[in-house]
Amino acid sequence: MKIAIILATVLATAFGTKLQYGFPSFQYSPFTGRVVGGKEAPAHAAPYIVSLQFLGSHFCGGSIIADKYVLTAAHCLAYPSLLVSAVAGLHNVGGTSGSQSRSVSKQTQHSKYGGDVGPYDIGIITLSKAFDFNDKIQPVALPASGVIHSGSATLYGWGSTSTTSTASMPKLLQTVTKPIIEYSACEAHLGGPGASPLADTNICTGPLTGGISACSGDSGGPLVQENGGKLEIIGVVSWGYIPCGSVDAPSVYTRVSAYIDWIKERI
């Protein structure tokens, strides 16, 4: 991972932005914000999204994939389970009527995840008690194994709205639809094979013209796409560039279809 950090510094110099592993928002604040360049989502438009909270403060997103299981980024599994809760049914992350909070009994990182920027940034949270599903709290479908996605996809999160190095954290769930960048094009844009922490198990989204991005607090949250009339979680927010929404700075996600067997073995 030392190499990844060095490469991150090189990329930061090349692009005038700072490469940051994930978009964690490990701050003691009861509020988080929105996707950069996004808009407020309709209330409960993403009934599968959860706020992962440390001592009651949001720090990462996650997605319900079964009544007792939440899919997130490995780098979000940074706190002891005893101090973490998963809250579903939120629109205002500071508190929404009808939301459900669950304590965490187990956190599972992919065994090959090495920390910092890199592949295998995926994890599963096992809840101490199942969520009670209703119209505001529902699981999201998994994609077929190995699928390579194209077109556009939609991001939901409570991440920072800021396009500077200082986070700005409003309260309400935000959303934006973003174009998927073909892997080879993303890799080439980041300097070619080996020049960045990008792996073929990632998905990149643009636009590279700037102004739209995942950001601090979005880590672990869902990138979804409709397939055959149902929404599937195709990506988990992993890493990107600070300031968020910079020109020539893609958002990078863990591609869920690369880990279907791993997920199914654990839920």
Description of the molecule:
The protein has 267 residues and is mostly beta strands. The chain folds into two domains: 39-43 and 140-257, Thrombin, subunit H (Beta Barrel), CATH 2.40.10; 49-127, Thrombin, subunit H (Beta Barrel), CATH 2.40.10. Helices cover 10% and strands 33% of the residues. It contains three helices and 14 strands. The chain has helices at residues 2-15, 183-189, 260-264, and strands spanning 18-20, 39-40, 49-54, 57-66, 69-72, 84-88, 100-109, 123-127, 152-157, 174-181, 202-205, 222-227, 230-242, 251-255. The strands form two sheets. A six-stranded antiparallel beta barrel has the order 9-10-11-14-13-12. A six-stranded antiparallel barrel has the order 3-4-5-8-7-6. The two termini are 29 Å apart. Mean pLDDT is 82; it is low at 1-34 and 161-166.
Keywords:
267 residues; mainly beta; Thrombin, subunit H; 2 domains; six-stranded antiparallel barrel; six-stranded antiparallel beta barrel; 3 helices; 33% strand; globular; disordered N terminus
User: What are the segments in which pLDDT stays under 50 over at least 5 consecutive residues?
Assistant: 1-34, 161-166
The percentage helix is: under 10%
Write the CATH homologous superfamily of the largest domain.
Trypsin-like serine proteases
Question: What structural class do the secondary elements suggest?
Answer: mainly beta
Query: Biggest β-sheet: count, sense, barrel?
Result: 6 strands, antiparallel, barrel
Signal peptide: 1-16
InterPro entries: Peptidase_S1_PA (IPR009003), Peptidase_S1_PA_chymotrypsin (IPR043504), Peptidase_S1A (IPR001314), Serine_Proteases_S1 (IPR050127), Trypsin_dom (IPR001254), TRYPSIN_HIS (IPR018114), TRYPSIN_SER (IPR033116)
Domain Peptidase S1: 35-267
GO biological process, one term: protein processing
